[in-house]
Fold this sequence. Notes:
It contains 8 helices and 5 strands. The chain has helices at 15-26, 37-53, 78-88, 98-101, 108-117, 133-143, 174-177, 180-194, and strands at residues 8-11, 67-73, 123-127, 151-161, 164-173. Strands 1-5-4-2-3 form a 5-stranded mixed beta sheet, sandwiched between helices. α1 packs across α2, α2 packs parallel to α5 and α6 packs across α8 (180-194). The longest helix is centred in the first third of the chain and has 17 residues, at 37-53. The protein is globular.
Amino acid sequence: MERRGLEYVVLNQGNAQLTELYRSQIGDWPKFFKMDTLSKAGFVATELLLKKLGERRCGSEEFIQSRAIVLFGSTASLCADRNYQETIQNKDDYYPSPALFVYTLPNIVTGEIAIRNHWRGESSFYVLVAPDAAQMAFHLACAFQDSVTESILAGWVDSRNNDDFQVFMTLIRKEDAADTDWLAGQLQLIINDLNK
Length: 196
């Protein structure tokens, strides 16, 4: 039996695109407007992927222990760090913003996604120089080594500034990660699409 390729979502067209997609496709998570660009990009791509896959949202009392989140990026929280730096740069106009400071860690995007979806599996954010399909496949395969994880929301989430970002999201099942060469090949196809 031939294995199907991974389903995925790619976004890379600026902050206005994220807001428009949120308003037209999601619209029911007001915390979106408090998020930094990295979190908005990861959040919107995840929502669009889950919709594409037809995944049901958990009820308020339900939780999924078996879904992990493993994301990769090269700039981590650099965009949010720069935005925060602007609020403390000028001694005469000093206004440190706790709302911005919250987003100065790259793993906040994994937390936003986990909270929204009631996922209680492991979450990680790896910083790589550039998207590397083989290295990503290795880390994803390692994430399945516990006895709980059955699927992983995986992706590349990177934001250089508020309008310059790249994101892809895909859902990896345990059987997908059993063959890391196949998984690396699938991730490379997605990376190629991301860089078009």
